Amino acid sequence: MARVWATWTAENPNASKVPPVIPVVLHHGPQPWTASASLIDVIDLPESALAAARDHLPSYRFLLDDLTTVADADLRTRESAVFGRLTFLLLKHGRALSAGRVGPGSLRAFLRSVADLLSLLNERED
């Protein structure tokens, strides 16, 4: 965020304000996200000191998109270009696919999802 603002202020030297930056984390790890989505929750201070300093510490929250908790059907219908939806599916399943840790049923479901999205591309070309 600081780099975005530094670049923006360098390009807009007469500006008195900066544009909003909404941080987003796209998680596609092997397990669901368990850490806090708020910076204030990971600052290492005793509770009494944290309470006293809270107004002076950065406390933004980031938007978390945890692909491990999103159903493939929901990924296929997201508001995104077809290649974006394919990317979400590959990010979600790529690690397991490359390690050969996908059972036949899961592999069929994944391939069906990919085929459905690829057929959308073919429909657009027609």
Describe this structure in words.
The protein has five helices and two strands, in the order αβαβααα. The protein is mainly α and 126 residues long. The longest helix has 22 residues, at 104-125.
Topology:
Layout: H1 2-11, E1 24-27, H2 47-53, E2 63-66, H3 72-76, H4 82-99, H5 104-125
Parallel strand pairs: 1-2
Helix pairs in contact: 4-5
Rg (CA only) = 21 Å
Q: What is the mean pLDDT?
A: 87
The beta-strand count equals 2
Helix content: 40-55%
Strand content: 5-15%
The 3D shape can be described as flat
Q: Tell me about the largest β-sheet.
A: 2 strands, parallel
Arrangement of strands in the largest sheet: 1-2
Count helical runs.
5
SSE order: HEHEHHH
Weakly predicted, low-confidence segments: none
Alpha-beta classification: mainly alpha
Distance between the termini: 42 Å
